[in-house]
């Protein structure tokens, strides 16, 4: 179970970074819509909402990616925990620092080797 959660948190951080790029470019993201396998696990749904700090909407159609945005009216919502979001935010901040440090380390290693 712990390995599952670690993998999921890592994936969430990667998705969060993409979301932050969109928001930095001026695109407001208020709700994360989940469909398919992503909506089946309650722990995963809660973790996504907490990591992103966004409301979660569960798409009624399992194959929502094929159906598209016109089905947006068929959603249910999941509660966001501001306390857990704050914890994930602090973890994400440390993750970003570690990522930048490792990126710099590997760039230096590449330069030394080349």
UniProtKB/TrEMBL annotation:
Q: What's a BP term from Gene Ontology annotated to this protein?
A: carbohydrate metabolic process
Q: Which domain of life is it from?
A: Bacteria
Molecular function (Gene Ontology), one example:
kinase activity
Where does the Carbohydrate kinase FGGY C-terminal domain lie?
A: 15-69
The protein's matches in InterPro entries, at most eight in alphabetical order, are given as:
ATPase_NBD, FGGY_C
Recorded hits in Gene3D superfamilies, A to Z, give: 3.30.420.40
Protein's name in the database: Carbohydrate kinase FGGY C-terminal domain-containing protein
Q: Which organism is it from?
A: Cohnella faecalis
From which lineage does this chain's organism come? Bacteria, Bacillati, Bacillota, Bacilli, Bacillales
């Amino acid at each position: 179970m712990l390995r599952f959660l670690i993998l999921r948190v890592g994936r969430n951080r990667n998705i969060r970074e993409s979301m932050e790029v969109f928001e930095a470019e001026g695109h407001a993201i208020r709700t994360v819509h989940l469909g398919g396998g992503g909506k089946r696990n309650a722990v995963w749904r809660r973790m996504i909402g907490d990591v992103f700090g966004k409301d979660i909407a569960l798409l009624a159609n399992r194959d929502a990616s094929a159906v598209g945005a016109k089905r947006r009216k068929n959603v249910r919502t999941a509660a966001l925990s501001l306390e857990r979001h704050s914890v994930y935010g602090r973890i994400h901040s440390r993750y970003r620092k570690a990522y930048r440090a490792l990126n710099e380390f590997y760039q230096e290693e590449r330069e030394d080797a080349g």
